[in-house]
Amino acid sequence: MGGKKQDKWGLDTLCVHTGEGTDTDTKAIRRPIHMANSFELSTDIEELLKVFSWDHLDKFQYTREHSATPRHLEERLAVLEESEDCVFTASGMGAVSAVLFTLLNSGDHIVASELCYTGTQKLFGFHLPRFDINVSLVDASNIDAVKKALRRETKIVYIETPANPLVSICDIKTIAGLAHEVGATLVVDSTWSGLITQPCINLGADVVIHSTTKYLNGHGDALGGAVMGSKKFLADVREYGVVHLGACASPFNAWLTMRGLVTLPLRMKKHSDNAMKVAQFLESHEKIERVRYPGLPSHPQHDLAKTQMTSFSGMLNFSLGAELMENFDFIKRLRLIKHAVSLGHDQSLIYYLPTAFFFEDMVVFDDRQKQKYTEIMGDGVFRFSVGIEDSDDIIEDLAQALDRVPG
Fold first, then answer.
1. Residue 194 belongs to a domain
2. What's the per-residue H, E or C state across 134-195?
3. Banded model confidence at residue 6, pLDDT cuts 50, 70, 90
4. pLDDT digits over 360-379, tens only?
C-alpha cells in the first residue's frame, strides 16, 4: 500500500489495517515481530541486485539497512501522513539528525525555529557550525522574521509546530511558500500534533518528522523517530542517515509503535478533549497566572491553529506566579499526575521548567530573546502533557493541589 489514503477507507480503519496482513506461515491475523539481524540471500543475481536496491523495500538483507517489522510501520505512517514514503529511526533525534545531515553541506544556510526541542536546538547551536553550516534562529511564529532571515543560499527552513516548550504555532502553508521561493526545503517537526491532527504534507511541507516515542507509540514504552517525504529523498535518508550514521531502529520498538498506532485516533481525541477541559479549568482558576493552549482563544496563534489543525492535541503550559519552591511543593501534592519528562503517554505527565533553566538549556539565546521569553514565561512554566484518564479526575487532582498554593 502506498502513501496515499485509500478512497474507501477512513482514518480509523487505516490506523488498524495499513501495514498489517495475515502471517503466511501460521495464518495469524497479526504480522509477527521479525527480530533477525540477517536474512537469507538469493543466489539469483537479479534477485540479489533487488535486495541491495532501495527501490525494492520488500527485500531485506540486514536490519541496520531495514527489516520487515519497521517496514510495516513505515507503510502505515506514510499513509497516515499522506507522504510517498517513510523511514523509521531509533529515536526522534535520530530522525532530525538523519534529515539535517542528508540535506546539508559545508557552506549551506538553514533558517530554524528558535523554539524547538532542546536536543534539536543544540544540534543547531553546537554541531552544525562545526561543519561550517550557517544557522539563523528566528521566532518562526513571526512570518516577517522568517522572511527576513531567508537567503539565496538557504537550503532548509526548519520549524516545529506546536513548538516545545511553549506550544507556539507556526504557519506551515505560508512558510512553505517562502521556503520554496528561494529553493529551500521545508522541514516540519510535527511531534506535538500527534500526526493526525495536522496534515503537514498537504499544507506544503516537504519533509515531516515525528518522535514516535510520544503520541504515535502512546504508551511510553518504545523509542523511535519517523521521517516522511518523497521516495527519492527518503532513499538518501535511509542510506546516509540510518546506514551511515547508525540511527537504525529496533524491530521490537517498531512493533510496539505499530500496536500504539491502532488506537491513535481514539487517543488523540481523548488527549485533545481532556486538554481543552483542563485548560479552561486552569484559565478560570484564581491561583493560575497564565495558560497557553492552542485551543483557547487567549492563545496568540489560536486563529492559525484552527485553520491548520483538526484538534489541538494534549500539550499545554501554565504558571502559578508563585515562589520557586512552591512550584515544586505543588507537584508534590499531585496524586494522579506524574512528575516526569516526555509527553504523549497515556498517563498525565507534568514538568516544571524554571525560566533560568530554560535559558541555560537554550544556550544560543541572546539578551533580546531572553527578555522576550521572560515576558512570556515569567519565572517559569509547567509543561503539562494531558493524558487519557477521566478529565474530572485530572481536574480534581489539579484542584486539590492548587487549593494549598498561597493566595
1. yes
2. EEEEECCCCHHHHHHHCCCCEEEEEEECCECCCCECCCHHHHHHHHHHCCCEEEEECHHHCC
3. low
4. 776 678 888 889 888 989 99
Start-to-end Cα distance in the chain: 58
Transcribe 94-110 into DSSP letters: HHHHHHHHHH--TT-EE
215, 274: one domain: no
Domain, as residue range, for 46? 11-261
Q: Reading across the β-sheet that carries 315-319, which strands appear in turn?
A: 290-292, 315-319, 380-385, 349-354, 338-339
User: Beta strand pairing status for 154-160 and 109-113?
Assistant: parallel
Helix axes 264-284, 391-402, angle to 10 degrees: 30
Same structural domain, 138 and 274: no
Cβ 240 vs Cβ 250: under 8 Å? no
CA distances from 381 to 9, 292, 327 (A): 41, 10, 9
Cis peptide bond N-terminal to 199, omega within 30: no
294 preceded by a cis bond (ω within 30 of 0): no
Do 328 and 315 lie in one domain? The reply is yes
- Gap between the Cα atoms of 113 and 301, Å rounded: 15
223 in the same domain as 275: no
Percent of all residues in the chain with a pLDDT value above 90, rounded to a whole number: 76
Query: Locate cell 477521566: which residue?
Result: 390
Element (H, E) at 226: strand 225-229
pTM score of the predicted model: 0.94
CA–CA separation, 194 vs 344, rounded Å? 8
> Same domain for 210 and 343?
no
- SS3 of the chain: helix, strand, coil, percent, to 5: 40, 15, 45
Shared-domain flag, residues 220 and 347: no
The pLDDT > 70 percentage for the chain reads: 98
Residue given cell 498517563 in the structure block:
347
Same domain, 334 and 294: yes
H/E stretch holding 129 reads: helix 128-130
Residues ≥6 apart with Cβ < 8 Å to 52: 61
Q: How far is CA 180 from CA 70, 185, 187, 360, in A?
A: 31, 7, 12, 34
Give the domain-ending residue among 209, 239, 261.
261
| Domain count for the chain | 2
